[in-house]
C-alpha cells in the first residue's frame, strides 16, 4: 500500500520527497515480508514482492521529482540573478547617456 501511495506522490514533482519516503518504507517492509516468507512465518509472497517493486519504483520516482524541483529552483535563482544584472547594466547605461540617441541605444 505504501508503494502505491508513494507512486501517487511521485506524480507531482513537488511531493516527490514524500513519495521517496513512502518508497523507502515500502521497500523495507517488502524485504521484511520476503524474509518472513522464506522463514515460513508468512504466506504473502506475492504481496511482499509487489511491495518491494512498488517501493523501488516510488524511490526512483521520488528522486526524479526532487531532481526536477531542485533544478527548477536553481534555474530560477540563475534567472533572477540575470534579471538583476540586466537591470543594473541598463541603469548604468541610462545614467551615462547624455543624448536621446544614447538613451534609445540602452534598450
Task: Write a compact overview of the structure shown.
The protein has one domain (2-105).
Can you describe this structure?
It is built from four helices and no strands. It has 107 residues and is an all-alpha fold. The protein has one domain (2-105). The longest helix is centred in the middle third of the chain and has 52 residues, at 45-96. The model has no long low-confidence stretch (mean pLDDT 88).
Fill in the keyword field for this structure.
DUF4190 domain-containing protein; 107 residues; membrane; rod-shaped; single chain; mainly alpha; transmembrane helix; 0% strand; transmembrane
Distance between the termini: 58 Å
Based on helices, strands and strand pairing, what is the structural class? Answer: mainly alpha
Largest sheet report: none
Order of helices and strands: HHHH
Over all CA atoms, what is the radius of gyration?
Answer: 26 Å
Number of self-contained structural domains: 1
Summed over residues and divided by their number, the pLDDT gives a mean of 88
Q: Total number of β-strand segments?
A: 0
Count of DSSP H/I helices: 4
Give the low-confidence spans.
none
How much strand? under 5%
Helix coverage percent = over 70%
Shape: rod-shaped
Keywords: Membrane, Transmembrane, Transmembrane helix
Protein name: DUF4190 domain-containing protein
Organism: Rhodococcoides kroppenstedtii
List the topology elements.
Blueprint: H1 2-10, H2 16-38, H3 45-96, H4 100-105
Helix pairs in contact: 1-2, 1-3, 2-3
Amino acid at each position: 500500500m505504501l508503494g502505491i501511495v508513494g507512486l501517487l506522490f511521485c506524480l507531482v514533482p513537488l511531493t516527490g520527497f514524500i513519495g521517496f519516503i513512502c518508497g523507502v518504507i515500502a521497500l523495507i517492509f517488502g524485504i521484511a515480508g520476503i524474509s518472513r516468507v522464506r522463514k515460513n512465518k508468512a504466506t504473502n509472497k506475492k504481496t511482499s514482492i509487489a511491495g518491494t517493486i512498488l517501493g523501488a519504483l516510488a524511490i526512483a520516482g521520488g528522486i526524479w521529482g526532487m531532481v526536477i524541483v531542485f533544478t527548477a529552483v536553481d534555474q530560477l535563482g540563475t534567472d533572477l540573478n540575470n534579471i538583476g544584472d540586466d537591470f543594473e547594466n541598463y541603469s548604468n547605461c541610462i545614467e551615462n547617456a547624455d543624448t536621446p540617441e544614447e538613451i534609445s541605444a540602452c534598450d
